[in-house]
Amino acid sequence: MGYDRAMKTWMALLLLAAAATAQNRSALDKQTFEAYLRKLELYRIEPTYKIGDPKPSKDQPGYLEVGVHVGFPSGAGDKDEVFYMSRDGQTIRDARGNVYDIKKSPFQSNLDKLTLAGAPSFGPADAAVTIVEFGDLECPDCRAEAPLLREEAPKAFPGRVRVFFKDFPLDSIHPWARAAAIAGRCVYHQSAPAFWKFYDWIYDNQDQINPGNVNAKIVAWAGQNGLDAVQLGRCVETRATEAEVDRSVAEAKALGAPGTPTLFINGRRIGGLAWPDLQLVIGRALK
User: Of 181, 187, 153, 186, which Cα lies nearest the Cα of 167?
Assistant: First the structure.
């Protein structure tokens, strides 16, 4: 009887140990977790990841704490991060409070807020990479970014990139940007393909435009490019599309756009970039 009692006690302890181990284990394996981190984080040089073993979190009840060491070939820039993982392996929290669903894009919250219906675009509808630019037609940095989006990206990634434009006029520093945005929407409603001619033209002629001549110059351009200048002039004068511009501005603010240009590349928010950096981000998105 003593032997049987000891065996039962031993088995009970084994079961308790197994239960404790199961409680501290996440359903998410380290390979899946690392793959997700590689989508989430962006580095010029691909780092190595060392994923620690999960342990119960004191800071996030109900979650498991996972330490991650991010290493680079030179050793410079190495860092340690902490993530919190739900026990079913479906939800990840970072130390800043961001929450991610492992089954969805790391940038799903941005994708959910982006409204692309009715926005000017070019590139194939089934492109693997979607770039959404929130831009200001008076902004010098947007003018510098424009040829990268219009020429360099389609040339470097033929058939794989689609670009959308959304208005984000910065009224406090650019006095004619809102008028240009309203006019741009008027052009788009009259002819969607003509919008991109307008986009190229207004950046090329940005230095010759001011608050006093912006509407007259745009109407004159419309007449020279096969649009109905009278109809466009009426649209511009009555500010018929201003509500559309306002909605776009509100969307930019809801997405946390800090200024212009702000790009969303497959949902990843990023500022205006020089071509080597933009090429890198697009290339990573394609991976």
Answer: 181
Q: Which of 58, 61, 41, 59 is nearest to 49 (CA)?
A: 41
AA letter at 251: E
- Looking at residue 76, its pLDDT comes to 86
Q: Span 124-140, mean pLDDT?
A: 98
pLDDT at 8 over 90: no
- Give Cβ neighbours of residue 44 (< 8 Å, ≥ 6 apart): 280
Single out the residue of 209, 222, 214, 201 nearest to residue 143, CA to CA: 201
Strands, E assignment, the chain = 48-51, 55-56, 63-71, 79-86, 91-94, 99-101, 121-122, 129-135, 161-167, 262-265, 268-271
User: Residue 168 corresponds to which tokens in the numbers above?
Assistant: 């984000």
Alpha carbons 194 and 265: distance in angstroms, whole number: 24
